[in-house]
Amino acid sequence: MLIYLRVLKESFNFAINALRNNKLRTFLSLVGVTIGIFSIIAVLAAVDSLKKEIEGSISGLDNSTIIIMRFNFGPTDIPRWKWQQFPDVTFDEYQYLERNTPNIEAATFTLNVPNESIKYETNQVDNVPIGAVTDSYYYIEALKLSEGRFFNTAESNSGTMVVVLGDEIAVQLFGNAASAIGKEVRIYGRKFNVIGVLEKEGAGLFGNSKDTSVWMPVNVVRRIYGDNNKQTFPQIVIKPEKGVDEAEFKAVLDQKLRLKRGLKPDETSTFFINQMQGFSDFIDEITGSMNVIGLIISGFSLLVGGFGIANIMFVSVKERTNLIGIQKSLGAKNKFILFQFLFEAVILAVIGGLIGLFLVFVVSIIASQFTGDFEFVLSPWNLFVGTAISAAIGLISGILPAISASKLDPVEAIRTGM
């Protein structure tokens, strides 16, 4: 073990000397490795950041959460012209499923309506997203309140004129110091009593954020828009109890809603039962494809870097031929010479890789300053991957020069090196 540590130390010294004595040559040789590692880790970090941001934007929804609507999350065998004619889910169907479906932890009915203005005295905020939901939305999305409360079942069913504000909306209307609870705001030209304010969460990937939204009982919005308005895009969101067989649960939902709609056994279901797990799998598929494409592109840089390392090692073998001959004449085995040059190649490649990782770190910090709440993730795993790839490139690139050095005849090596 000690001899290998000595070889590693000597190889490290040779690598550092190569950097010092042949700065331009070594720099040009390591550029490929540096760029390659930078490209690979930058791609991995960007994809991880994108995935984390998307998952964060839907973090309130468990993968088991089910969304019933007239559209499908992904591809479907049903022709487009057919599913476009499907009817929207209704509030009555939501109540029916909630009452008659076993193993439901929480269920909510939501409407997507156009943005509105919200006004308090002389302060007004325009283009505010309206969340028209039932009271159980609070539990499904795992919302957190900084003050006040969410509306209850009685207020939800009766359509009481109450509203819960996002943090930024509350600040713009009432300032940082004043409490929003108990204040009256005007939306749709009607007065709403503020009963709660959500905790600040920051901007989402696509600019969407709960901070800039408001929530009110869905029955308030139903009175305004009616139940046959195609603009409202209704959805039934259901969170099953933990441990429930998901396939069986979806089959029960399908059966219940088909029965409610009076569909015959040979008729196609006129709704889609979507699961968040399917959306998560879709995100994983997209990010996986992005990783593969990035790795392929970055691989060309690593190929160039590998040739550069191999070149510098062949030159190193030629320059140290005399020294190799002397070492072998003093009893150094072929294995000792082989490991000496292999270690040197790996060390050179790792140095180039570490420079690439440092550049990714710097770029991620700079990029984070210009992207607001979007956080670039440079995980320990990515750092490990970058270092491992560098070492592998050094090992592959240095194997041939190391073998050629280990097979030199000591007499010929001394004579050639003189």
What's the topology here?
Blueprint: H1 2-21, H2 23-57, E1 66-69, H3 80-83, H4 91-100, E2 104-112, E3 116-120, E4 123-128, E5 130-133, H5 137-140, E6 145-148, H6 153-158, E7 162-165, H7 167-174, E8 184-187, E9 190-198, E10 214-217, H8 218-225, E11 235-240, H9 246-261, E12 272-275, H10 276-319, H11 321-329, H12 334-370, H13 380-406, H14 410-417
Parallel strand pairs: 5-10, 7-9
Antiparallel strand pairs: 1-11, 1-12, 2-5, 2-11, 3-4, 6-9, 7-10, 8-9
Organism: Aequorivita aurantiaca
Domain MacB-like periplasmic core: 26-255
Keywords: Cell membrane, Membrane, Transmembrane, Transmembrane helix
Task: Indicate the proportion of strand residues.
Answer: 15-25%
The gross shape turns out to be elongated
- Secondary structure: helix percent: 55-70%
What low-confidence regions span 5 or more consecutive residues with pLDDT below 50? Answer: none
